[in-house]
Write the structure tokens for this entry.
Amino acid sequence: MSNELPRSFKLITVWLLLGALIFVAVQWWLYRARQTQFQVSGGVVELRRGSDGHYHWPGSINGHAVDFLVDTGATGTAMSAGLARELQLESLGPVQSETAGGRVTGQVVSADLTLQGGVSAQRLRIVALPGLSERPLLGMDVLGRLKWQQGDGVLRFELKPAR
């Protein structure tokens, strides 16, 4: 009687190990890609344009982690109505908003917003819109408070107080 494992068991094990290695390699590559898109150093935040052509800024709304889409053309910060419901944000009233898809009716909500790198806004009025993607839009109501410049696919924010 042989103590050797069946050939099919060996092949399955090899394929599972190979699949696990590929999975780990892809996850590492994605992690590194995210790290290079967002960097904080010495009071400066740099956002590099992502593969989707947009700038992303990791942060949170009322402690719930989100990936903000930076929108320098938006007057205010906006989120999906679904995310506002998920976070149980109370409506402060209805609002009409002009979007790329036309005029829509949403709700104004209030929430605490925090961005990695030390930027925060307490009780920020955010527009919750139906049909908006699950990624919140970070508008000029927050960005306008910061000193920033854009060039060569990089948005650079100086967070140090002016001297």
